[in-house]
Structure of Polyprenyl synthetase family protein:
Amino acid sequence: MGMTTTAPSLQGAMAAAAAEIDQALDLLLPAEEGPEAPLFAAMRYAAIGGGKRLRGFLVLEGARQFGVSRSAALRVASAIEMVHAYSLVHDDLPAMDNDDLRRGKPTVHRAFDEATAILAGDALQTHAFTVLAEEDTHSDPAVRTELVRCLSKAAGPRGMCGGQMLDMLAEAAGVPLDEPAVGRLQTLKTGKLIEFSAEAGAVLGKAPLAQRHALLAYGRDLGAAFQIADDILDATASTEETGKRTGKDAVAGKATLVGLLGLDRARLQAERLVTQARAHLDGFGERADLLRMLADFVIERRS
Amino acid sequence: MGMTTTAPSLQGAMAAAAAEIDQALDLLLPAEEGPEAPLFAAMRYAAIGGGKRLRGFLVLEGARQFGVSRSAALRVASAIEMVHAYSLVHDDLPAMDNDDLRRGKPTVHRAFDEATAILAGDALQTHAFTVLAEEDTHSDPAVRTELVRCLSKAAGPRGMCGGQMLDMLAEAAGVPLDEPAVGRLQTLKTGKLIEFSAEAGAVLGKAPLAQRHALLAYGRDLGAAFQIADDILDATASTEETGKRTGKDAVAGKATLVGLLGLDRARLQAERLVTQARAHLDGFGERADLLRMLADFVIERRS
């Protein structure tokens, strides 16, 4: 099947999943009531109604391989999207990347204020763990605690936070990183959370370890391809197309694989990663077709 | 027993517990190695070697009532102290309280920089949940999940983060809060985490619900008394005595019970809360003596 026939059904499925995730987030986040309402408003502004929901979609599709209930999968998808949203809110702060635009809207510290943005990010992270730990996520506490363990490791000092530190240090040093260092940075900063998103459905479904590992490996290659595609977009697309400021890697002198390898070789590497990602799904049947299409999609997209 | 004979043994026990908690944090936090070392250094700077460890001490003493292993109790004590430390790092930021001094040392954003402080706070929170979710904390995953659920609720939007939002809103409004509003603010901002610290040992020890609730109620009254004592110290003690900037509530026009009731009536209310706190321990034997002494201590301390 070529992209022309498969892409519409993937994009339809992704849009439907994004809408479901938004509904779930709407129910899971505190309602804008009471004296703390501005905090809840900032959390909702940051988390609801934006983005492709790549991570959430991975959770839902991973969970579908094992017949996990949609409501459980949506809770885990929402928790991961809360952590992703918190990381964007904090990354955008003046002391960090100082961005004014995110998903086509003013960033949280521009729409609210800096203190509220810090606090809303903090609270989104905390709330994600509440959602995972509550009984509605799975009747077996061993599953819930494993989800907490994996998400906190993916987002913590040896995961996303560590990657963000490397990114800041590289920018402060003004010396471009070499290819292994860029790879490590991206694995930590974005890769670990995408890996876990792909793996989470297998945890929820108490899948055999081999299948859990296959999904994790798929997520790893998909995440790496996604990151290269993101860097290519930053280098080539307009702010209007992506809804966030583009061209900023070059301005900031950030080392990316695009900068190190050039556009053509970076595209080739992304294609190789997509082929690898698809190969990890060989043991899965037709149910994994959307995951296969997604691998193609991450390097074809224009936003 | 009067304070003159009991206070020294309590203070010895608290100092010993603080040293044990520091050792545990030293083992549980990432070592200062690798390219992300500055992040790990900032996390360690924020979390290790400071403070009275009131929350950690409550965990350890609560756990002792039910014969919980010291190593398990120390992990939970460390996780709560990580969350407490993260909240201090973020509260001290320029966009929040803009403090230069904490526990007698420069605050994290002064000793490192603002971006590293934001990130170190984030990672301390995440890491706390990793520590709770790991098998070493308890062999029963139901216990680990319950600890995650309770800590995340105490620290989240309807707990500590909500309280911090109320504090910021009150300061921005410039209109002093009334007594119920101050009570609500303090319950959320500091009370919930102290409550859970007192309760956590009962969760670890799978204690009967009545005992778990008694410890939680003890923690609630102790936390309220502690907060009044803190406000009294801010109004009356010097920066040298407390190791942090004092007198700032009056400067900021913050509403505290001391400001609303005056020193004498605030002291009386704190004493009433201490009596209540001790009463919740009536069903516990001699093992709870340190918790009883602690209730007296929180309103006697000078730092």
